[in-house]
Specification:
Helix content is 35%, strand content 23%. By secondary structure, the protein is of the alpha/beta class.
Amino acid sequence: MPDFAYPLLVADIGGTNCRLGLVERAGASPVHLARIATGSAPTPEAAFEAVLTTLSQRPRSAVLAVAGPLEGRMAQLTNAQWHFDGPSLGKALGLEQGLLVNDFEAQAASLSVLGAGDMTTLVTGEPDPAGVQLVLGPGTGFGAAALLSRAGRGVIVPTESGHIGIGPEDPTEEKIWPALAAGIERVTVEALLSGDGLVRLHRAVASQAGMLEPDVSAADVTTLALDGDPVALKAVVCFWRLLARVAGDLALVFKATGGVYISGGIVPRLLPLAERGAIRAVFAGKPPMEDLAARFALHAITAPDGAERGLAAIAAAPQRFGLDDPSRLWFA
């Protein structure tokens, strides 16, 4: 596989926002270029060109993370309208080569370059440096990917874990579940652990308390909770418990003894409201597998540019992450 040409464009493209960065040389950290609204232009080509036209030196290649499933050189955002055709995008932007990856492939790759200062530990566990690492998180949707390392070579396993079903596990959840399920065809992880999910939880808690929920966004719920509003605070507590439960369940699926990492834009703002004891109890409370679950560590990634740094790491050594499949790479 040929080396990527530099400068290199990296982009973390979510359902709501898109962060663009430029990597000047292999091994360098991305320089932030812009944060734009996903869908701010009819096509990603048009949106990117509006940023690139301001640069004195245009990128020669690109590695782009897309919040949706991939089919070779093509991808479709799950929660937005943009479609990506790698070769067409490369031609439109004058790129020599490029690679599309799932957004959580980028997050998983970032684990190789992030440090202790880029995260907060919620559960210490007994991590195995050679064990499987799992990264997951809520945003506009919910994603997850695992990073397996063997003999110096990694393999990233992206998933569609946000679309698995979920049900209540305790009396508190049972009381609010009918309101949570109202108006949706199927209660999935993403339906609850996402920006819309936080709003849905707030609505359900308000309904169970006999209150009429005001028209609020996920950011509003977070602000209200941080200000001590009891309904919003209970919604956030429920959100954390569900997130810890799902993180622990997925840790069992992948036997993630290398650690579990929560990413995404929602969690850093909610960290002041994280009740460590309750999170630990739910995360590790997995009978009859408590001994194994007690080994799992849980961290929250706080670095805002983790995905872009992961993309830079992929470009520098795609074979390190099992992303050197020529069927995924495109050339001019």
